[in-house]
């Protein structure tokens, strides 16, 4: 083969994925939220933090595993998506159980926060902002970020599926690589 990059290209550029960046923001916000607003003895603290962590970590692990297993990449990306859905329910439960308002989709606050969240994928931005915000506001911001990450993960899964359909898996790549090598080196069957 002329270019080794064609044979089993290395994957793992997860830090550049907006979904990963948003998941990092969600994790940091959740860590802050759980320790600030939940009772330390409440199991929800660990559950929320672990769901947020799982959302982030599974994006990274799936991306890294993609080099040799597109199946694992797809599965772990979906686990990340599912973990963030679990976290979404925890935030919704918190708001409901504490008599706080979950902002509606067309609420002015939602529209404004959605626009801000769309433009900011850096956790430092949120960590500077949230200490001065109420539990209700932070929970709603987290919900908005989770919805945005969910959309990005759904699109990522679609791209991963299309990539698999187009290129196949590791066995197919290995076969193509071996055939190309033989052809370049004048081997016969």
Give an overview of the whole structure:
It comes from Prevotella pectinovora. This is Four helix bundle protein. This protein has seven helices and no strands. The protein has one domain (10-184). Helix 1 (18-37) packs antiparallel against helix 2, helix 1 packs parallel to helix 5 (123-129) and helix 3 (70-97) packs antiparallel against helix 6 (135-167). It is an all-alpha fold and 189 residues long. The chain has helices at 18-37, 43-65, 70-97, 108-119, 123-129, 135-167, 170-184.
Q: Which helices and strands appear, and what pairs or packs with what?
A:
Elements: H1 18-37, H2 43-65, H3 70-97, H4 108-119, H5 123-129, H6 135-167, H7 170-184
Helix pairs in contact: 1-2, 1-5, 1-6, 2-3, 3-6, 4-6
Organism: Prevotella pectinovora
Protein name: Four helix bundle protein
InterPro entries: 23S_rRNA-intervening_sequence, 23S_rRNA_IVS_sf, 4helix_suffix_dom
Task: Name the features.
189 residues, mainly alpha, 73% helix, elongated, 4helix_suffix_dom, Four helix bundle protein, 23S_rRNA-intervening_sequence, 23S_rRNA_IVS_sf
Radius of gyration: 21 Å
Helix tally?
Answer: 7
Question: Could you say how many structural domains there are in total?
Answer: 1
What about the largest sheet?
Answer: none
What fraction, in percent, of the residue positions are helical?
A: over 70%
The ordered string of helix (H) and strand (E) elements is: HHHHHHH
- Low-confidence sequence ranges: 1-5
Distance between the termini: 17 Å
SS-based class: mainly alpha
Q: What gross morphology would you assign? A: elongated
Q: Quick check: average pLDDT?
A: 89
The fraction of residues in strands falls at under 5%
User: Using DSSP, what is the number of strands?
Assistant: 0
């Amino acid at each position: 083969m002329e270019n080794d990059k064609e044979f089993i290209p290395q994957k793992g550029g997860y830090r550049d994925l907006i979904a990963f960046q948003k998941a990092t923001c969600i994790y940091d916000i959740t860590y802050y939220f759980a320790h600030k607003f939940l009772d330390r003895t409440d199991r929800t603290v660990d559950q929320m933090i672990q769901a947020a962590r799982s959302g982030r970590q599974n994006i990274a692990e799936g991306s890294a595993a993609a080099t040799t297993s597109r199946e694992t990449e797809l599965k772990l990306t979906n686990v990340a998506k599912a973990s963030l859905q679990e976290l979404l329910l925890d935030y919704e439960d918190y708001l409901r159980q504490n008599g706080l308002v979950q902002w509606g989709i067309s609420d002015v606050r939602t529209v404004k926060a959605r626009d801000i969240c769309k433009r900011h994928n850096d956790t430092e931005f949120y960590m500077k902002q949230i200490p001065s915000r109420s539990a209700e506001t932070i929970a709603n911001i987290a919900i908005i970020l989770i919805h945005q990450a969910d959309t990005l993960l759904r699109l990522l899964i679609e791209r991963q599926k299309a990539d698999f359909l187009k290129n196949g898996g590791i066995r197919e790549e290995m076969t193509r690589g071996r055939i190309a090598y033989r052809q370049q080196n004048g081997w016969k069957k």
